[in-house]
Amino acid sequence: MRDQVAPGGPAEQRLTTKETAEVLGVKPETVYAYVSRGQLSSRREAGGRGSTFDAAEVEALARRNRRDGGGGSGSGGELSVRTRITLIDQDRYYFRGVDATELAARHTYEEVAEWLWTGELRSGAAFTAPEASVAVARRAVDALPEHTGPTDRLRVAAIAAAAADPLRFDLSEDAVLGTARILIPTLVAALPPVPYGGHRDPDRGPLARRLWARLSGRPADEASTRVLDTALALLADHDLAASTLAVRVAASARAHAYAAVSAGLGVIEGPLHGAASGLAHRLLLEVLDRGSAGPVIAEELRDGRRIPGLGHRLYTGEDPRARTLFALLADVPRAAPALAAARDVVATTTRHAPLHANVDLALAVFTASAGMDATAGETIFAVARTAGWIAHALEEYGERPLRMRPSGQYVGPRPPRPLP
């Protein structure tokens, strides 16, 4: 550390690049990234070989980084983001400090969403969308090819709803909450109902019943609707999953709520995230068709594929979401065969690896037993998680803009290189 005297000014402590990196807990390359983004100023000393930095400015940046929790460690650790929304700890998870499984068991999806957004429970909360918003979203979705997947339909519906909302750039809390309460039912209403004469009015009633009409051609009995509503509430958030991180990055850049949700939908389609339940659904159907999980699991392992619906990197035991849904599915008579098949899958696989059921397997039991398409779990996941995405976007809007900006570690050829 060196003392420099600025012309006409008091003594000023200057730090070398190495010293600055040590104070910030980053690599030297990251220090220059801070300079390029205007977060830190540098000075090249006369006769010196490198840049120096104002110690007070460096310490102020270090304090901001510690407060915001938005940076990775210089040792290559994972990105850490402070949040008050969801905690996952010892095979349980909590929404704003309340056990999420207990919350989902006692409250509707809409009430749980309000809790995530505001920290207050609005008893009887119900989401409805204006006809104009639904009409625009439906026209956009109806124009898509017939083979379009559910996440693409939801993403197009979100974009259409955004285009119809001239106030979408208002990022105040009240405005974003108003958007959320309209967007979620708009996404559901934009999906085409499954043809069935018993769906008397697929656009009325609780959100879970409206979504059921888009997923199953069977009548919605009370027990099955309860499973769907509970699944929506359980899946509303799960800390910084990949899609949620994408939402926070978008919100950090001050993208409006529709765009932030669209970013989440763009990530959720992957087979390791929202689409995982579809793989488990197909696995269960094959087990049911062949009468035993043994030969099905053997073929999956022989082909080098992981068994879908098993294991979770955040839980050492059974996924609490799966445990809750399995308990509810036990009260649905027509779910008994799929539930038995799922237990057979777990028991067969446990002989070789101690893996427990996760929520994707529970969703697969539900969708397979309800006569839904294999992609239905993906739809449920996406609609449910929209509530959590909005909660994280709201939280991010209150943080410093563009803080979700990690620095790349360049490992390519060193410049300068000749033009190709």
Order of helices and strands: EEHHEEHEEEHHHHHHHHHHHHHHH
Distance between the termini: 43 Å
Number of helices: 18
> What is the rounded Rg?
25 Å
Q: What structural category do the secondary elements indicate?
A: alpha+beta
Instruction: Detail the poorly predicted runs.
Output: 1-10, 70-77
Q: Could you explain the architecture of this structure?
A:
This protein has 18 helices and 7 strands. It is α+β, with helices and mostly antiparallel strands and 420 residues long. The strands form 2 sheets. Strands 1-2-4-3 form a 4-stranded antiparallel beta sheet. The chain has a 3-stranded antiparallel beta sheet with strand order 5-6-7. A hairpin with a 5-residue loop joins strand 1 and strand 2.
Q: What would the keywords be for this entry?
A:
3-stranded antiparallel β-sheet, 52% helix, 7 strands, 18 helices, 4-stranded antiparallel β-sheet, disordered N terminus, alpha+beta, single chain, globular, 420 residues
Structure summary:
The protein has 420 residues and is α+β, with helices and mostly antiparallel strands. It has helices spanning 17-24, 28-36, 55-68, 100-106, 109-118, 131-142, 150-163, 173-190, 207-215, 222-234, 242-252, 257-268, 276-290, 293-302, 320-329, 336-350, 359-369, 376-397, and strands at residues 2-5, 11-16, 42-44, 51-54, 86-89, 92-95, 98-99.
